[in-house]
Known about the structure:
The protein is mainly α. The chain is 75% helix and 0% strand. It contains six helices and no strands. Helix 1 packs antiparallel against helix 6. The longest helix is centred in the middle third of the chain and has 41 residues.
Amino acid sequence: xxxxxxxxxxxxxxxxxxxxxxxxxxxxxxxxxxxxxxxxxxxxxxxxxxxxxxxxxxxxxxxxxxxxxxxxxxxxxxxxxxxxxxxxxxxxxxxxxxxxxxxxxxxxxxxxxxxxxxxxxxxxxxxxxxxxxxxxxxxxxxxxxxxxxxxxxxxxxxxxxxxxxxxxxxxxxxxxxxxxxxxxxxxxxxxxxxxxxxxxxxxx
Length: 204
């Protein structure tokens, strides 16, 4: 137990998060559904770990440690707030919203912002790659134009805009893949910077 440093504890927590994300991807790819049991248990675990483990500035930080219950709750809430409008516009499923909220419960609000940016970037790239692989890139842009025009006219008529399904699909991307890839990419970037920081300290 003497060798269980805060950095090792943080690595363990981040590995748990990655395993939950891979489980979500497995289900999303197979059935286009992310089980409620996975995301609810994962979110509860993120809040619990941030509440009971030794305090720090987050599990992906130079001073690794728990954020505390309230800051972890802020991360969960941010994931809901950012992704819920996308669900209301029918641009993603409820499972995707809950999955990002689970990530927020582990990482907190500050780290989640970078994760969300990477998720959107990777999601866009994956959508383009999916359309290219299926030979439906032109259809993808046609669908996007149709949905945007339809949303504009609904807004003019004072109706609730929705990104209604296009007549012909260009290929559905399980968005849990983008969330997992964005989160893991963010973790990798933070850890690479952390390793570089420690290396610079060791030089002196």
